[in-house]
Amino acid sequence: MITASNVSLQFGKRVLFDDVNIKFHGERCYGLIGANGAGKSTFLKILSGEVSPTTGSVSLEPGKRMAVLKQNHFEYDDETVLNTVIRGHQQLWELMQEKDAIYAKPDFSEEDGIKASELEEKFAEMDGWNAESDAAALLSGLGISEEDHYKQMKELEGSLKVRVLLAQALFGNPDLLILDEPTNDLDLKTISWLEDFLLNFRNTVIVVSHDRHFLDTVCTNIADIDFQKIKLYTGNYTFWYESSQLALRQRAAANKKAEEKRKELQEFISRFSANAAKSKQATSRKKLLEKINVDEIQASSRKYPAIIFNQQREAGDQILEVENLSAHAEDGTLLFKDLSFKVNKGDKITLLSDNSLAITTLLEILNGKLQPDSGSYTYGQTITTAYLPNENAHFFDTEDNLIDWLRQYSENKDEVYIRGFLGKMLFTGEETLKSARVLSGGEKVRCMLSRMMLKEGNLLMLDEPTNHLDLESIQALNNSLKDFKGTVLFTSHDHTFTQTVANRIIEFSPYGMLDKLMEYDEYIADPKIQQQREAISGPVLI
Q1: How far is the C-alpha of 418 from the C-alpha of 435, rounded, in Å?
Q2: What is the pLDDT of residues 232-280, one digit of tens each?
């Protein structure tokens, strides 16, 4: 389908790819993964022709059509939403324009009639008569209401533009579909729709995503960028992660015999193949996994941050009690009303709401950053909190280096001690001396996690902690919160993170609250709970 041959890419002295040879083909979905800065998005641009490699070439099979999720959200501002989607099939769009131009001629000739007839035949072959209805169906599936279909793109807010551009990429059954972070700004229902769409898509997909649940659901193969190369693995992200960790442990066990290692890997593959029966792609993925050669499984060079939350003291039985809390946003929007719940020792509660500002406001109130309109909250005497806010820019408005930045939050001011915490978050050597002001979004979150670790709280509160983090940091944080012996309140759009950490769900709106002691997957799949969720949903403007 599409082949990269001897592809290398170099920026100055930095080599991103070195002599990459890879082919993507068939009814497969490839998840392209790699550490931050490995070049995931850049490689997609090489495949699409947006970036030229330093050496080598990319070839798309003749007669095949490629579609790419556009990242320029303003490119089609003067076009209608429906036409923007149809323009995803450029050949069909150009044919439509040519056809319409001929029919609009005031001096329509016999020659024009013959040409129009030829174009109509091609139009029918491309299923052009269903173009508008197909485009509308995609838009509706992605949550774009029919009343917005004929608006101009510039009239839509940013998150809706992203959905329209996704519909554009999906339109017209392309032979090769390239998607860079397609789940950004999508809600749970729309992500599920996209998962089902891709599961039923019978052509080739290459996708970059930080959503592990999405990768696990749709991917049949993983393309891993490591050591400036790209290696293909059969299976989804979790299979790649667990197998690479197993291979890493085996590499560390130098004295283990080769036959013992091989047997352990084979047992792992068999176990994972059996678990594939639970997947939406059960049959096809199980067949693929059964064909895996144990030699395919290799250790990764990935570095995972060491996120370790210790409790300075174990909490007593009284954790937190919230009574009749109510709050409005600055514009007068009611966020929640008479919110009451009691947090028990060992609870790991995920907070859900259609309005993310409502959750942020609740967490800011519980951490003394905002005052409620009414109501109260009470912590137990043994409780020490540690909080990761969603917005952190003001923490880094300083020229302090990372050592001095973190030192201000520590009772122990010793530089070796501080460097130890930074080292756990992969800041080493000269990196610890750079200004806090110039950090990337992911680096800032890792610094904020270091700050949390220093506090040694027994009640952790985290507002969208996976935002800006790479897959390695997300996995490390996920494992850490699963292992944490204390109590956690958090919110996250990461499905796997929520499913594996939370043992209790609290969902609220201005019209009510649900409080269920269960796992996330069970919560969203239970039809009775869905009815209850609908009962508390509704417009929040008052």
Answers
A1: 16
A2: 988 889 888 888 888 777 777 766 676 776 676 677 667 666 665 455 5
In which residue are the tokens 């969720």 written?
A: 533
pLDDT digits (tens, 9 = 90+) for 379-406: 999 999 999 999 999 999 999 999 999 9
Report yes or no: 126 and 95 within 8 Å, Cβ to Cβ.
yes
From residue 75, how far is each of 81, 129, 167 by CA, in Å?
Answer: 12, 26, 15
Query: What is the C-alpha separation between 254 and 476, in angstroms, rounded?
Result: 25
Q: From 89, 369, 358, 33, select the one nearest 209 (Cα to Cα).
A: 33
Beta strand spans in 185-248 (E): 204-208, 221-226, 229-234
Domains of the chain (ranges, CATH numbers): 23-224 (3.40.50.300), 320-394+455-536 (3.40.50.300)
Distance CA 452, CA 454 (A): 5
Pairing of strands 348-352, 504-509: parallel
Q: Give the Cα-Cα-Cα angle 436, 441, 447 (nearest 5 degrees).
A: 50
Nearest C-alpha neighbor of 354 from the set 512, 526, 184: 512
Interior angle at CA 236, CA 248 and CA 39, nearest 5:
75
For the whole model, what pTM was predicted?
0.84
